[in-house]
Design brief:
The protein is α+β, with helices and mostly antiparallel strands. 48% of the residues lie in helices and 13% in strands. The protein has two domains: 46-353, Cytochrome-c3 Hydrogenase, chain B; 376-407. The radius of gyration is 22 Å and the shape is globular.
């Protein structure tokens, strides 16, 4: 006798989803038999807009691909342009970039921890986590002028220096997080209720993590020691001793479940503290940007011709930006790949055979950012046939829509 199954759609708007995304679940009783993912509700056309701006203007557009990764995308974009144009970044600027990026990792992981706790029904942990996160946001505001969207990255360096007056405050924040780390470990890694809700839930095996090309904490929690800062060191990371964190460092084993993904992020908070401390102790003297005159920089970029790729280990995983410069004020091509794009397919083995009640925490466990990664796919409502647009077709449709809006 065949088992009766039912279809449950979740999304695109749902209390457990931070951004639009549709999941079609097939369930038998309380168990998930299969899941189909339907992205495509949140395409913003940022790459198209970027090709109609000059290179420096794109930095601030890249910064807004993701509010939580507002250092990661400009970091990768600037590296791509610097590679294409042959621009050298001063050592001091490289260290400042790393400091900002690691401060962002701290605030991103703690924000995720609060959201994950809320998905489990622990509202008090959400409030605790976000209270702890305030300290790093205050420091980012002091160093850059903003809590989010820092506006500090520039082609060839950074726009603001870290002065001697900043150092005591940075050290104070690092000491704060050394103390806070023990609290985070106690409430997230040693609480029996958290363990009961997350151990053995949403398992992504080592083999699936590799085959499905997962990145960041999602991959590392399955035992894949993949981290761009370790594998292909760049910027000031090349001067630092960085090793990819896997859950066996804490628990002695790797299960690839939601609990292991919590372990990786909590341990990475402390790792970021150590990285920033190394940068502060070894911060070199010198310039913070290769060319301080903006007009001269734009003139150089306008004459540049070549291709460049910029990679950065964002809090969610590897982000990649690609640019092609062709002796023009605007880039001929700009492409960005956010880590969530890689971590979508791993959702499928994570969700299969799980209980319906575990859907929110399994989805949240990859720390998804749908607005970062969404692409356009057309679906014929009559035949359900999908059609992927070519570059030329997408540009044509985008221009037509822009003209309609302007009317």
């Amino acid at each position: 006798m065949s088992k009766t199954t039912y279809k449950i759609p979740i999304g695109p708007i749902h209390p457990s989803l931070e951004e639009p995304m549709t999941f079609n679940f097939e369930i038998a009783g309380e168990r998930i038999q299969s899941v189909d993912l339907l992205p495509g509700d949140n395409h913003r056309g940022i790459e198209f807009m970027g090709r109609n701006r000059n290179i420096v203007q794109i930095i601030y557009l890249a910064e807004r691909i993701c509010g939580i990764c507002s250092a990661s995308h400009p970091f990768a974009f600037c590296r791509a342009v610097e590679n294409a144009a042959g621009i050298e970044v001063p050592p001091r600027a490289e260290y400042i970039r790393v400091i900002i990026a690691e401060l962002e990792r701290i605030h991103s992981h703690i924000l995720w921890a609060g959201v994950a706790a809320l998905e489990l029904g622990f509202s008090s942990l959400l409030y605790l986590s976000w209270k702890v996160r305030e300290e790093v946001l205050d420091l980012l505001e002091l160093l850059t002028g903003n809590r989010i969207n820092y506006g500090i990255f520039m082609i060839g360096g950074v726009r603001r220096d870290i002065t001697e007056e900043h150092i005591p405050r940075i050290r104070k924040t690092l000491e704060y997080y050394k103390d806070a780390y023990q609290t985070l470990e106690d409430v997230f890694l040693k609480d029996p209720s958290i363990a009961l809700r997350t151990k053995g839930v949403g398992i992504l095996t080592y083999e699936h993590a590799l085959k499905l090309a997962s990145v960041g904490p999602t991959a590392r929690a399955s035992g894949v020691k993949k981290d761009v800062r370790q594998d292909q060191p760049y910027s000031a990371y090349a001067d630092l001793d960085i090793k990819a964190i896997t859950p066996d460092v804490f628990s002695g084993e790797v299960n690839g479940d939601v609990y292991d993904r919590i372990i990786v992020r909590v341990l990475e908070v402390f790792q970021s503290v150590q990285i920033i401390e190394q940068c502060i102790n070894n911060l070199p003297e010198g310039d913070i940007v290769s060319e301080p005159k903006l007009a001269k920089l734009l003139g150089t970029l306008k004459k540049a011709k070549g291709e460049g790729v910029g990679r950065h280990e964002a809090p969610r995983g590897e982000v990649i930006h690609y640019v092609k410069l062709n002796e023009s004020e605007n880039p001929e091509v700009w492409k960005a790949r956010a880590p969530t794009y890689n971590n979508l397919m791993p959702w499928m083995p994570m969700l299969e055979n799980q209980e319906v009640a575990d859907i929110p925490i399994v989805i949240a466990s990859i720390d998804p950012c749908i607005g970062c990664m969404d692409r356009v796919t057309l679906v014929d409502s009559q035949t359900n046939k999908k059609e992927v647009l070519t570059r030329e077709e997408l540009i044509k449709l985008s221009v037509a829509k822009t003209r309609r809006i302007l009317k």
